Give the backbone structure.
Amino acid sequence: MLTRRWRALALLPIALALGACSALGLGQTDRTIAVTGEGSVVIPPDTVVVTLGVQTRGPQVGPAVAANNQAAERVMQAVTQLGVAPDDVQTTYFSISTQPRYDEFGNATTDVTYFVDNTVTITLHDVSLLGGLLGDSLAAGANSVQSVSYTVAEPAAALGSARTQALADAQGQAEQLASESGVTLGPILTVTENTGGSQPGLMRYGGETAPAASDVPTAPGTLEYSVQLSVTYGIR
């Protein structure tokens, strides 16, 4: 009987401690407001990346490769004559493939046609050179324009301005929600960023023969750099 009484007395402080913790509100969910702010900056591009290709074909691999090498060399010369630095010219793909040849009845023969592809990627730091580059390269022997992509060499400043706009947008939303809900807006608890940028679509050309040398009409347009910030504020 005495042992049971001592056990009851020992458990009493623990129960009192748990009651005190409950009274202090420990374990309650923090009160917050979560919003998403958006900001964007529109600027003109200052860099353009072009991917050109030379494709040749023939019944024998040697002549097909030789013809491709000659055309690719002429394209390289046309590019360097525009003042493009060697560091901004890169061979990004080279392949030799075969395709069966068929007789007049549609049956595959033992003969094949060899296809040789050589792809070069050029970076222009002056977007006004794009039209001349395309015209001269196509005239020199390029018969594929696989992509034209505008960009900005240093987007940090644009993204910084967009980020400032996004945070101000989030702040305005949170203040409105807090005011209409009858609560006081507290400090920022968490921030999560989602950054994106838009670019013009791809520009493609493919043909058996190259056109006469002339500048290809181009328009760089503008680029929009956007930032989304998911911001969580405490409230009281």
